[in-house]
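Researcher: Next sequence.
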Amino acid sequence: MRSLWRTFGRVAAAVPREIVAIGTSMWVIGTSYGAAAHDIGLAWWQIVLMACVVLAGSSEFVMISVVAGGGLPIIGALTGLLMNVRNVSYGLSAGRFMKRDRTLFAAAHLVNDETAVYSAPHRDPATARSAFLICGVAVVACWPLGALTGALAGQVIGSPETLGLDAAFPALLVALALPALRDRDTRWAAIFGASIALATAGFVAAGIPVILSLLGIPIGLLATSRSSAPVREKVAS
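Model: Next structure:
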């Protein structure tokens, strides 16, 4: 435990601006979610409770869009659950550095886009675990706070969508993902995944292109393994 906290401190001291950026972005995006949720008639405590329990902005935005379009809340919840299937792959990635004890259940609640992307570049398990926890704490604190801010602001803002705060979400993920693209396998997986998402957008239900983009991982790994095979053969000869 002592070594974990020492590693935690080193990571926090080395990249404070990234954590601040993540926390601020989560607050901004949460504000957009809170305002939109208030606009469909949810009470402030319902908005904050959902932000604390779900802790996944994409599924909450999908649920709100379904309800706003006249759909049943249960349909919105199931659609959001389907969209978050990608968290299974995030959990597999986090499993390489998380301890197999009772804290694993709490850590599972912290699995999301931000924690997965922020911890992925770290190869050392202790450092990756600390980065995951630091980012998770920032999300846990700032996302519900942003939801509360948006819920209160929604009472005085007529059209929350005009603020364009949700644009911070993709901008944040792009900024976090850029360092990971230095890895060749990751770069090709991202290229194939983005291509699949763009090709299917507009033809399938909202959120499905994100799930389909996961196919970029095996396709990217297959492509890089084939391209590196001739190189290995030349070295062997």
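Model: The chain has a mean pLDDT of 76. The two ends are 49 Å apart (CA to CA).
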